[in-house]
């Protein structure tokens, strides 16, 4: 630290510039991670929020809700299986709704209507209003982002192409599905909306899209062979099967990966060039007795210090940005995620200093003696 | 025996054609604490090579060098850098100060290489700097110092770890003669009062009056000139 802090102080501007680059890179990394997090919850928050481990689809549905139709009767069979702690049916339906009384097309809202058993573990707790009840007659609880569209408890919603009218009885928080705000309804009423067209249920008795399973010790193979006509996936696989989820996530992860590599190079090269410029100086210090360890500590602590400060500023800027971003942006900062990217950035920076360290250990103190001059 | 001893030390390089290039030829010499010995000689005669071997920066091809009863041939690289830190003080030609350290820190960094800096270390460093006339410039950086002041800082730095041996390679090369005298005088005074064994390589024959013995290096051979 002795050399590190004194040099930082003495060459403020030089280090401020590289610090600036690090600040910008880490800022971008955090923003991207927030965006990725926001997008993925937009696409699958309801799935992620579920207190469940596995999902049963129709055999051949390849992890997709929209391709899967199975009978609700299987819930009883699954519950009876020893590895399954609890099971609940679920259905999804993409719809366009309009608040009753609004006429204008521009006030139409895209939503995901999700059918669940009232009172089951799939029902999220309401933050306002009342929870769902059996036979509630098209009562729904909806995501609170719809408040921005002026919807309140007690309002009614028309569904385009369907005659049923929904009554809003409560709000839930942070629930979206397929990039659309979630509307929860009792599974029987969902069925009459989703399978409104005659024959669309393909002859399945009491059709639903999937059955969500609780149970830590579920063995997928055993369950699939025990119960006819289903495939069992983990919740994570089901989330990856959401339309667009893998593509979105993959793009963002790739950008993050590139950024980390870029930052490693920028920092690594900067300090390497600095080290090259200082070969003579390091040679003199070695001649008067500095060990490789002493000089290595100096450069590693310098990079660590600089990176910590820059990443810290990056975090502050990120939270500042988050505060002024429009509410509709799919941007969600997860402190755990920010923290882990900060650690990764720090690690990458320190790792990149190793090329300088290698150079230092190779410097011959002999060059300090007046034989070259 | 303390001080530094050379016994039949030779140094040669293998040149490209496979023939030997002899730089030092059977050099023997002993310097005791309190002695300042000068080495003069034409350019390319091997003076810096000699000094580098004395400072454990370069290995002799044959022969033995002992510093404070330690045979340099038997030390590992880590032990060698520790030996330099503990027992040898270097005064180099020019530009050998660390640019971002102030005068006081130039000395303290040597202490830091050993471990913690105590307040006694600070006192000692300030005292040394006062002796070389820099008591009022402790907070100055090298770029704010004159050539002579820089070299005086380097002299103080060479003494700060209380080494047994002082090695100086043309310490006056970049100075005018008035400052050159001052600098050599300071080295001589330090060697006498602190009882060090010291070598000085120089081109400048006017400086020899301060030295106890003078050797001339000629084509790798060391001859006593006076003393
Ligand atoms: N690595 C090396 N390989 C081959 N020859 C070398 C090597 N290093 C030094 N020499 C040669 O050794 C000789 C002595 O060099 P040295 O630096 O000791 O001279 P010097 O007496 O200090 O000269 P000056 O007064 O000019 O500083 C020179 O002729 C030089 O070319
Ligand atoms: Mg020389």
TrEMBL record, chain A:
Keyword Cell membrane listed: yes
Record domain ABC3 transporter permease C-terminal: where: 254-365
Record-linked Pfam families: FtsX (PF02687), MacB_PCD (PF12704)
InterPro entries referenced in this protein's UniProt entry, alphabetically: ABC-4/HrtB_transporter, ABC3_permease_C, MacB_PCD
Self-association state and partner proteins as the record states: The complex is composed of two ATP-binding proteins (HrtA), two transmembrane proteins (HrtB) and a solute-binding protein.
Membrane topology: Multi-pass membrane protein
GO cellular component annotations of the record: plasma membrane
Protein name per UniProt: Putative hemin transport system permease protein HrtB
Highest taxon above the source species: Bacteria
Lineage, top ranks: Bacteria, Bacillati, Bacillota, Bacilli, Bacillales
Coiled coil: none
Gene Ontology terms: biological process: cell division
Primary location: membrane
Entry keyword annotation includes Cell cycle: yes
Automatic annotation (TrEMBL), chain B:
One of the record's GO molecular function terms: ATP binding
Domain ABC transporter residue range list: 4-227
Entry keyword annotation includes Nucleotide-binding: yes
GO cellular component, one term: membrane protein complex
Domain of life: Bacteria
Record's keyword terms, sorted: ATP-binding, Nucleotide-binding, Transport
Record has ATP-binding as a keyword: yes
PANTHER family (UniProt xref): CELL DIVISION ATP-BINDING PROTEIN FTSE, LIPOPROTEIN-RELEASING SYSTEM ATP-BINDING PROTEIN LOLD
Family: Belongs to the ABC transporter superfamily.
Entry protein name: Hemin ABC transporter ATP-binding protein
Originating species: Oceanobacillus chungangensis
